[in-house]
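(Fold this chain)
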Amino acid sequence: MRRFMNCHTLALEEKSSRLQLGIGSTGMPATMRPFFWALIATLLLFLGIEPMAGADLVSANVLKRVKRIVVGQSSGTAFTIEVDGLQYILTAKHVVAGLQGNKGKIEIYEDKDNKKEITVDILRCDDPIDIAVLVPPAQVTVNFPLPPEMKGAFVSQEMFFVGFPFGDFGLTTHDGQSAIGFVRKAIFSAQVGKGDATILYLDGTNNPGFSGGPVVYKDLNIPNGEMKVAGVISGFRNDIEEVMKGDKIEREAITQDDLNRRVIRRLADGSFIKLSPTGNYVVTNTGVVIAYPIERAVELIKRSGIKGPQAQ
């Protein structure tokens, strides 16, 4: 049994991870090294410098466009693009599902304690395409070059997506002006047609809160790999698995049928357990990320005739 989970659903569970950096001997206390390198990276970002030109890094033209947005109880991610020199906000359609009609108010967060409410015109792609275009009254972010297209994107290449998981600003970097979204890497696994729509499948790890974030990549046909935005994150594929319990079993009691059904596990102490179903189920994240192509948003913008603010 399978179903899809939208990424805007907020989770209460918090997970912590530790990043270990392989840094040579510098005379600097180990506990300070991550802060030192984070400071350097943030300074480069603030200055608009892309370190290690040609490397697979998500640069300021992406990071400074991505914002956390809130609509009612729904928290998600949004980002800006330019079409014909005018700026628009893109997000997942389900993130703004609480807004009725063609106008509504959204909250845009610069960081945890700094937000602004704006009224936007709302354009929605036809189902099943999970993209909404929000037309702001004034420019929202920088307009560093970020072409909204999939030219030069190939199945099996690395892509990145950026967002605000769980709406938690504790999972963001801060460049002194605003929060920078959480960056994830994925592989462009497949592009599948579904009626008149196309779905992009990525192999990565997505979480609630990334919905509406950009999928970006480097165009392999261009020297130095220009960063482009390929699509909008919609959600992730999950699976429902049965919870099993393990009862101890002696080696002599293990049958060939047990082995064929793979219900025997050997523990670290050398003993064995036999798995049996409990009747309970758990939802798991398969690691399949779902996104929709950016071209559909661009088509909608041009077809609507609604003009965003001039980007400067």
